[in-house]
Amino acid sequence: xxxxxxxxxxxxxxxxxxxxxxxxxxxxxxxxxxxxxxxxxxxxxxxxxxxxxxxxxxxxxxxxxxxxxxxxxxxxxxxxxxxxxxxxxxxxxxxxxxxxxxxxxxxxxxxxxxxxxxxxxxxxxxxxxxxxxxxxxxxxxxxxxxxxxxxxxxxxxxxxxxxxxxxxxxxxxxxxxxxxxxxxxxxxxxxxxxxxxxxxxxxxxxxxxxxxxxxxxxxxxxxxxxxxxxxxxxxxxxxxxxxxxxxxxxxxxxxxxxxxxxxxxxxxxxxxxxxxxxxxxxxxxxxxxxxxxxxxxxxxxxxxxxxxxxxxxxxxxxxxxxxxxxxxxxxxxxxxxxxxxxxxxxxxxxxxxxxxxxxxxxxxxxxxxxxxxxxxx
Length: 377
Known about the structure:
By secondary structure, the chain is an alpha/beta fold. Helix content is 38%, strand content 10%. It has helices at 14-24, 56-74, 117-121, 123-137, 151-156, 169-172, 174-186, 220-231, 248-251, 265-282, 300-309, 320-324, 328-333, 348-354, 366-373; strands at residues 30-37, 79-85, 141-144, 192-198, 236-240, 287-290, 315-316. Strand 4 (192-198), helix 8 and strand 5 (236-240) form a beta-alpha-beta unit. Helix 1 (14-24) packs parallel to helix 2 and helix 4 (123-137) packs parallel to helix 7. The longest helix is centred in the first third of the chain and has 19 residues, at 56-74. 49% of the residues are buried.
């Protein structure tokens, strides 16, 4: 999750550093960094992470400190992955792929917000440049992100867009694949090439990808895309579903929240399992990262191990859970795991972000708990 807690030049603030040091102490084998904007206009807010040539030393220092901390605390060398993104419709000034009647009920835009083909043509180089900087900073891999309604993901459903980036499957996937290729050329052999992908937006066609006109899951085009991603060298796929700006219950099943979800959490959790199992069986070469697990609380480890043992996925990822209880894995290994410290799946961390605040666990972390109180919600 984006912490919205960097300095305005995109470099790590003390809150950012403290958060990732907690990750270094967690015992996790892999730390998947939050969305890092590849250009200023592609940021969701003025405090989004953004690695640049100018702030490279601060990122190097953070990576080096994390490496030492993980080694000292757990005796491991963590794998660190930096996620590269362009926020598109959710940028400070919206930059949209096409007019989407569903999303625009929440955030109105005009035709003037539609990005040109010429602008999109410039992004592959920006992704390549960011990937090079990530390697200089010491990251082990980069993630070319396409999820949650951001620019690449929105282009996947640009069925009505004219030009080189719209209508046909080839055009709608063009920018995503071009940027994957550009990043691959920019990084040395041995560096991990990964992607976090919304396999389906769970928004009815033609306003969403991987979904039928009546809103049902449709994996035909996602399978076509995954076949191409495998061919381009994507090694790890971090699976997600839905668009948190429209249907947050889909990718973050929750126990309590700001609205009544139209489906039980069990439906969303089963959807994750079905999609991950489908991908693993169809594309066995991919290392699949499972998601949505923070919901399980006291059954967290049991459910995670079941997914791994059943071959549903190869790795398990924790977002909200880590914010709430960063030391949970070390505690589990040391037989000190406490369900009482686990994420409540209430999404107050997201509420902070949506209200233009820095984001963290507003239940178990005192700093964010006091910040949440100021919202008067």
